[in-house]
Specification:
Helix 3 packs across helix 9. The chain is built from twelve helices and eight strands. It is globular. The protein has about 290 residues and is an alpha/beta fold.
Length: about 290
C-alpha cells in the first residue's frame, strides 16, 4: 500500500516557466514589496488555454447566455446543455473552461439531466483579468440563485474547493462530486511560492497580504474545513499520480465528510481523469443514486 502512494507523480499542468522564476528572484533581490505585488498579480491571473477540438461539440450544442453576477460585479458566460427539470452544475478548475468536463456532460445528458456550466470569473468569455477563491464562491452562489435549484454539482480541482464551500454555506445541492480538489488554501500559496523559487518566509508574507486584502483567514475556506459542515452524499475522486494536487488532500476531505465516498485512481493525473469513460460513468451512477 505504501508503494502505491509513493509512486513518482506526473508533472504539473501549470508549471512556471524558468524565465519567470529567474526574473522573480532578481526582482526580489531589489524589492520584496514590489515582488509581492508582481507575484500577487501572477497568482490571481488565470492562464487562458486554447479550447481543444474534443470540447467543441459541447460548445456548439449548448445555449449561451451572459449573466451579470451582481455579487462580484462581473459578467459570466453560462452554457446550458440539454433541457430537463433535473439539473447538474459543473465547475471547472483554475485556468479551465466551461467545456472541460465535456465527457461527464455527455453522460449526464444521456441520463436525462440538464447541464449548466460556465466560465469562472476572469476565465474564458467571462469578464475580469484576475480572480480568487472568495469571488469564485460568490459567483457560484449567484448562479445558484439565477439558474438553480441544482440536483447535483461536480467540481474539478479549484472548482471542487469552491463547490464544497458553497454547500457548506447554503446547502445548494442534493449531492456533490469533487475531482482532484485541493484541501488547505495556505498549501496552494506555499506550493506556488516554492515552485517560483522563493522561501517560506516570503510565502508567509504573501499569505498575510491576501488575508489582509480579503479580510479572511485563508484556511477557514479549506475544503476539509468546509466538508465538516456538509451532510449531503459526496463523492471524492482523485488520482494517486496527480502532479498538481496531492492525493492526501482527497483523504483529508473524505475524513471530514459525514456521507462521503472516495475513489483513488492510478495513472490518470490531474486532467486526463476528466476524460476517462469509466470514471465518468461511476460519477453519473453516483448522481443517479442520490437524486
Amino acid at each position: 500500500m505504501k508503494q502505491f502512494f509513493k509512486q513518482p507523480k506526473f508533472s504539473s499542468n501549470l508549471a512556471i516557466p524558468k524565465i519567470v522564476k529567474v526574473g522573480i528572484k532578481f526582482l526580489n533581490a531589489i524589492s520584496t514589496r514590489l515582488t509581492l505585488f508582481v507575484i500577487s498579480r501572477l497568482f490571481a491571473t488565470p492562464i487562458q488555454f486554447a479550447r481543444p477540438e474534443r470540447e467543441l461539440g459541447m460548445l456548439a450544442s449548448s445555449q449561451k447566455k451572459k449573466f451579470y453576477c451582481k455579487e462580484i460585479d462581473k459578467t459570466i458566460q453560462i452554457i446550458s446543455y440539454g433541457f430537463s427539470d433535473k439539473k447538474v452544475l459543473l465547475a471547472h478548475g483554475w485556468s479551465g473552461r466551461s467545456t472541460q468536463l465535456f465527457m461527464l456532460a455527455n453522460h449526464l445528458l444521456e441520463q436525462g439531466y440538464m447541464v449548466i456550466s460556465f466560465d469562472a470569473p476572469a476565465h474564458g468569455s467571462s469578464s475580469g483579468k484576475s480572480t480568487n477563491l472568495i469571488e469564485y464562491i460568490d459567483c457560484v452562489k449567484g448562479i445558484q440563485k439565477e439558474f438553480g435549484p441544482f440536483d447535483a454539482a461536480i467540481g474539478h480541482s479549484f472548482g471542487g474547493m469552491v463547490l464544497m464551500n458553497v454547500q457548506a454555506d447554503c446547502n445548494a445541492f442534493k449531492c456533490l462530486v469533487t475531482i482532484g480538489a485541493a484541501d488547505k488554501v495556505s498549501d496552494i500559496f506555499y506550493n506556488f511560492i516554492k515552485n517560483i523559487g522563493l522561501n517560506t518566509s516570503f510565502a508567509n508574507k504573501f499569505i498575510a497580504l491576501f488575508e489582509k486584502k480579503l479580510g479572511i483567514r485563508l484556511d477557514d475556506n479549506s475544503t476539509s474545513v468546509a466538508a465538516k459542515k456538509v451532510s449531503i452524499p459526496s463523492f471524492i475522486v482523485h488520482d494517486v499520480l496527480d502532479g498538481d494536487v496531492a492525493v492526501s488532500c482527497a483523504i483529508n476531505i473524505r475524513q471530514s465528510l459525514q456521507k462521503g465516498a472516495l475513489i483513488i485512481t492510478n495513472g490518470l493525473g490531474h486532467t486526463k481523469i476528466l476524460r476517462n469513460n469509466n470514471i465518468s460513468l461511476r460519477i453519473v451512477k453516483f448522481i443517479k443514486e442520490h437524486t
